[in-house]
From TrEMBL:
Stored PANTHER family: TEICHOIC ACIDS EXPORT ATP-BINDING PROTEIN TAGH
Keywords from the named record: ATP-binding, Membrane, Nucleotide-binding, Translocase, Transmembrane, Transmembrane helix, Transport
GO molecular function: ATP binding
Keyword Acyltransferase among record annotations: no
Protein name: ATP-binding cassette domain-containing protein
Domain of life: Bacteria
ABC transporter domain location: 5-243
Pfam families listed in its UniProt record: ABC_tran
Transmembrane segments: 284-305
SMART domains named among the record's database cross-references: AAA
Family statement: Belongs to the ABC transporter superfamily.
Organism: Viridibacillus soli
Amino acid sequence: MNPKIRFMNVSKSFSLYRKQSEKLFDIISLKKDRDQFFALRNISFEVNEGEAIGLIGLNGSGKSTLSNLLAQVIPPSSGMIEIKGETSLIAISVGLNNSLTGLENIKLKCLMHGLNNAEIDQIKSDIIEFADIGNFINQPVKNYSSGMKSRLGFAISIHTNPDILIVDEALSVGDQTFYKKCLDKINVFKSQGKTIIFVSHSLSQIEAFCERVMWIHFGQIKMFDEAKKVISDYKKFINWFNLLSEKEKKNSRKEMLDEQYKVELIPSNSHIQQIKRKSKKSNVAFGIQILVLLFVVILSASYMLL
Ligand SMILES: Nc1ncnc2c1ncn2[C@@H]1O[C@H](COP(=O)(O)OP(=O)(O)OP(=O)(O)O)[C@@H](O)[C@H]1O
């Protein structure tokens, strides 16, 4: 089978700074010997077209880091990532510009996805209807509740027709009616043979529509298998962990976190290869989009200053 997503020995590490000045110093001096924390280490896996994959794991295990790598929001520190198609990430805190209105965000995100004005006009009303946030669509996003942000983010992402949809906890803040609407839309997506990565702490949500589940544990893949099997083992682990005393829990966490600081010799090269469906972006169109983006940002900044 032809994989849609392929990770080969991918690691993502972060330099840990105590002060902002340390970060600045590293940029200027190109110094590279700061303490490294491996949010993900040497992970390899493949996902096929049409699969719905669940990501589970304790807080801080590396799920969002993985979804950000998949969406190319951040680059890997080492290893190779191959992605065939357009990706769209839906996460509570990512993607929307807080100082722009909902409507302006729709335009901006659609432009960033390579749609032209005529295409945006065609889907704009569907997005507004799906988000269903009433007159708030004309208000700056900073005035939205987290559920409203999730509604708008989901509505935009689903209507830009990506090949790979990454849903990172975005449904956890919506109410039940919105959750049901999203689930229906995700199922349509699945039936069209598209690929879905679903990050959630709700095992019942994951079990409801993921065929395979990846359990990430302190930056490593602990299991990647049939949903039922992984969820059952994960529940056993959670039950075992909950029976530990507070001191044992703390020690166990500390032991695992210490492992994530250990630096081993890994190749320093990294690479992302994204093979897009079809490039809608000619250089001219892309230049225009950047200009529009700059214009909108300047406009909203001057609006805020007034
Ligand atoms: N920019 C960063 N700088 C330093 N450390 C980071 C950064 N981003 C993430 N981390 C660390 O990487 C680890 C993985 O974080 P991540 O957000 O991927 O976990 P998660 O599994 O999504 O957690 P949660 O379930 O709480 O959302 C955490 O220990 C986090 O503190």
